[in-house]
Amino acid sequence: MKINSPRGTQDILPPDSFDWQFLENKAHEISENYNYQEIRTPVFEYTELFNRGIGEATDIVEKEMYTFEDRGGRSITLRPEMTASVVRSFLENKIYGRAQPTKYYYIGPMFRYERPQSGRYRQFHQFGVEVLGSNDPDIDVELMAMGIDYLEKLGLKDFFVELNSIGCPECRPDYVADLQEHFSEHEEELCSDCRRRLTRNPLRILDCDECAETTGNAPEILDYICSQCHDHFAQVKEGLEQLKIDFHIEPHLVRGLDYYTNTVFEVKSHDLGAQNAIFSGGRYNGLVEEIGDRDVPGSGWALGLERLLLVLEEQRDEDIKSDLDVYVIKIGARAEKLSLSLLRKLRRAGFSADTDYGDRSVGSQMKDADRKNSDYSIIVGEDEIQKDSLTLRDMNTGEEKMIAQDKIVDVLADKIQ
């Protein structure tokens, strides 16, 4: 019987893997620019971490987690998101004892049991950033600016921020009470999930697309936030204005996770139509204390790489290619032996190099070099061996030049920057 990959997963093969490497390399670059260090956590954690961190009334915990019992009888969950894992690591490794803030970034797979569709998989990948140990509103601004700078590095443009504050544990209860009263008057208009959320967590109703008409005239949290939250939000807006980052207030934006406080945001593109959200996040000042025993502020965002690839396909003019520096073309038995040491010499000098392993004709080798987008080819034949030289061919112009074997690395270094 034929065995296929599980539904909602995919094999990432060349040339698509070149696109993934491009995104990941740019993620490493922007993180280095902003002085964020990489963190790698296990792909599975104890289930309690996500129940406590994400919130038991969220769709993720109620419907979407891959949870199983290991052989020791412990409940294990494949990570559906990364923030809770980062916080667990921060606490377990006592990073709070170091100078703060701590700035992390990550790239890796997450797992949610969702209905697969374009750009959405059950195993999906995120690039995200987290800052722990600072309540400075400028951190929230820096995070949004960093994400936008990353997108611009990829060649994307024309972004705006949808922004809101969802207050803090001190000012939110009055809002939640009024929200519950509002939705109780419209209970018949709510979907079955939101009727259940009405008593457990009415904030989640604001995040439901199916109940969007009912939420349109719901109370707005900005009318309820305390003076401290108001001042924090004002500084975030001022910082965005200073950086000339376009934003507008979305008063019912709450995000889909329970741990958020104060700033929440979604970054969108004007060029993408209805499905225009690219990355999102916010502040989560109570999460570290919820998971552990320390009151440490935090803020961050995450971006889905599968979704981002779709955006790139819509906006870019040409495909991303993984070019080969040099292709070695062999003519005759003696060239076969010489090419082995030549290839290693080129690779150890830092060039990407390949050759034919199928005893093909010179014409076929040339076609293979062209198919692999090689910038140069090196021809090794009897004539070259006798002269202790190599023929260097520019694959773009067709220009050929005889180069002494001991000079080939230096010549290529001048040509390939």
From TrEMBL:
<dbReference type="InterPro" id="IPR041715">
    <property type="entry name" value="HisRS-like_core"/>
</dbReference>
<dbReference type="Pfam" id="PF03129">
    <property type="entry name" value="HGTP_anticodon"/>
</dbReference>
<dbReference type="InterPro" id="IPR033656">
    <property type="entry name" value="HisRS_anticodon"/>
</dbReference>
<dbReference type="InterPro" id="IPR006195">
    <property type="entry name" value="aa-tRNA-synth_II"/>
</dbReference>
<keyword id="KW-0067">ATP-binding</keyword>
<keyword id="KW-0547">Nucleotide-binding</keyword>
<feature type="binding site">
    <location>
        <position position="126"/>
    </location>
    <ligand>
        <name>L-histidine</name>
    </ligand>
</feature>
<dbReference type="InterPro" id="IPR004154">
    <property type="entry name" value="Anticodon-bd"/>
</dbReference>
<dbReference type="InterPro" id="IPR015807">
    <property type="entry name" value="His-tRNA-ligase"/>
</dbReference>
<keyword id="KW-0648">Protein biosynthesis</keyword>
<dbReference type="GO" id="GO:0006427">
    <property type="term" value="P:histidyl-tRNA aminoacylation"/>
</dbReference>
<dbReference type="InterPro" id="IPR036621">
    <property type="entry name" value="Anticodon-bd_dom_sf"/>
</dbReference>
<feature type="binding site">
    <location>
        <position position="255"/>
    </location>
    <ligand>
        <name>L-histidine</name>
    </ligand>
</feature>
<dbReference type="GO" id="GO:0140096">
    <property type="term" value="F:catalytic activity, acting on a protein"/>
</dbReference>
<dbReference type="GO" id="GO:0004821">
    <property type="term" value="F:histidine-tRNA ligase activity"/>
</dbReference>
<keyword id="KW-0436">Ligase</keyword>
<dbReference type="GO" id="GO:0016740">
    <property type="term" value="F:transferase activity"/>
</dbReference>
<comment type="subunit">
    <text>Homodimer.</text>
</comment>
<feature type="domain" description="Aminoacyl-transfer RNA synthetases class-II family profile">
    <location>
        <begin position="30"/>
        <end position="315"/>
    </location>
</feature>
<dbReference type="GO" id="GO:0005524">
    <property type="term" value="F:ATP binding"/>
</dbReference>
<keyword id="KW-0963">Cytoplasm</keyword>
<feature type="binding site">
    <location>
        <position position="130"/>
    </location>
    <ligand>
        <name>L-histidine</name>
    </ligand>
</feature>
<feature type="binding site">
    <location>
        <begin position="81"/>
        <end position="83"/>
    </location>
    <ligand>
        <name>L-histidine</name>
    </ligand>
</feature>
<feature type="binding site">
    <location>
        <position position="112"/>
    </location>
    <ligand>
        <name>L-histidine</name>
    </ligand>
</feature>
<dbReference type="Pfam" id="PF13393">
    <property type="entry name" value="tRNA-synt_His"/>
</dbReference>
<dbReference type="InterPro" id="IPR004516">
    <property type="entry name" value="HisRS/HisZ"/>
</dbReference>
<dbReference type="InterPro" id="IPR045864">
    <property type="entry name" value="aa-tRNA-synth_II/BPL/LPL"/>
</dbReference>
<dbReference type="GO" id="GO:0005737">
    <property type="term" value="C:cytoplasm"/>
</dbReference>
<keyword id="KW-0030">Aminoacyl-tRNA synthetase</keyword>
<protein>
    <recommendedName>
        <fullName>Histidine--tRNA ligase</fullName>
        <ecNumber>6.1.1.21</ecNumber>
    </recommendedName>
</protein>
<comment type="similarity">
    <text>Belongs to the class-II aminoacyl-tRNA synthetase family.</text>
</comment>
<feature type="binding site">
    <location>
        <begin position="259"/>
        <end position="260"/>
    </location>
    <ligand>
        <name>L-histidine</name>
    </ligand>
</feature>
